[in-house]
Amino acid sequence: MSASFPRKLVVLSASLKTNALGRALVMRDIGTGLFEDVEVYAPPSDRLWVGAVGEPVLELTRHRLHRLADDLNVRAADGRSAVVWISKGYPSAVSLLRLLRRDIPVVADFDDDDIALAREFVSASIPNRIKLNPLRSGSPGRLARSQLWVRERAQMLTSSSFALGSSIDPHGKWVRVPHAREDFGGGAKPVTGFRRIGFLGTVRPHKGLNEICQALTGDARLEFITFGQSQVVRPYTFAGRWHELPPDTPLADAYREVDVAVLPMNAASDGAQRQLPAKAVDAAVMGIPIAAASTPVLDEYFSGGMLQVANWNRLGARLEAAFLSGELNRLGSASRKSWANELALDRVRASLETAIADLFARPVK
Question: Where are the beta strands (DSSP E) in the chain?
Fold first, then answer.
């Protein structure tokens, strides 16, 4: 690493209380090893996302906001380089960036089409429209304006997939930074069944909740495994087959309860079509076979390495046939290979190091 490579990385999360913080923690993990000092900040909240319990995340209060800006500005004036990596580009990011010198390098990161997701949320019901009204920072209009402002201020753009980046800005020069993971699985294991289908993440309509219910309705042998979460009421019809693990269950332990990871992304949701589910990466680390709807992002990473499902009512029969033929074992090995080739932390870190070094070789606009 050259002497001109920056020494400090500041990661700004869009949220402290939602799984958006998970993306910021991935960004921190990637930056650790490249930078001497890495800090994660998030807007203040009354609670912390369950996946970040014990993580050193600093609440960006008004006082801390100005103190951070002063520190970064002094470092820049003294020639001590630092990088600010913004996740999602919410209005809270604009508040920080307006206080910074123009010669402080900014990287804008996008891991979801949050504007599309916000529009879909608002259009779903009148209560949703009230909840995410134009005065709220996450409303479609305010989010579109803040993301554009952040992109125009940034010297580099990162996204979780090329499919997402090109949809946000077809002319942007994107650096692909997926949800990287270290190895916590130890390699693919022989698949011993097909009945236990797992969705180890937040269950939402745009992520295929209806399709999961279709699969359970279509085959009474299937058992559904997910994390316990307050936003979803366990469907009474599937009470005996809908199993919720404690949210703090280690991922390796949770995936040992699963035969196949299912990702039934809603085809009608633009947001879902452009999303790289973190649970797909987690399943790949463990070498768990993946059954999923085809989306541009999933195809980008797992093409040829997942069981593509169009009819979720027939999922049980598809999985049984794949298990008996040995295809599930092949798919498990393929998902593990996808992680090793494209999603492993060291590989993603090396790619980012090259991009950051190139950024510092250029004059900051």
Answer: 8-12, 37-42, 57-59, 82-87, 106-110, 156-159, 174-176, 196-199, 223-227, 242-245, 260-263, 290-292, 307-308
pLDDT digits (tens, 9 = 90+) for 187-224: 778 889 999 999 988 777 667 788 998 999 999 999 99
Give which of 33, 40, 28 is closest to 7, Cα–Cα: 33
Q: What are the domain boundaries of the chain?
A: 8-180+344-361, 196-343
d(CA 89, CA 5): 24
Whole-prediction pTM? 0.88
Percent composition of the chain: helix, strand, coil (DSSP 3-state, to 5)? 45, 15, 40
pLDDT confidence bin for 237, thresholds 50/70/90: confident
**For the domain with range 196-343, which CATH number is right: 3.40.50.2000, 1.10.10.10, 3.40.50.300, 3.90.550.10?**
3.40.50.2000
Three-state secondary-structure class, residue 217: helix
Which among 9, 13, 20 has a CA at the least distance from the CA of 278? Answer: 20
Q: Which fold has domain 8-180+344-361?
A: Rossmann fold (3.40.50)
Residues 6+ apart with CB under 8 A from 122: 128, 129, 132, 139, 140
Query: Whose CA is closest to 345, among 67, 117, 27, 19?
Result: 27
Per-residue pLDDT tens over the stretch 140-192: 999 999 999 999 999 999 999 999 999 998 888 899 999 999 998 777 788 89
Question: How confident is the model over 311-323, as pLDDT tens digits?
Answer: 999 999 999 999 9
| Three-class secondary structure of residue 185 per DSSP | coil
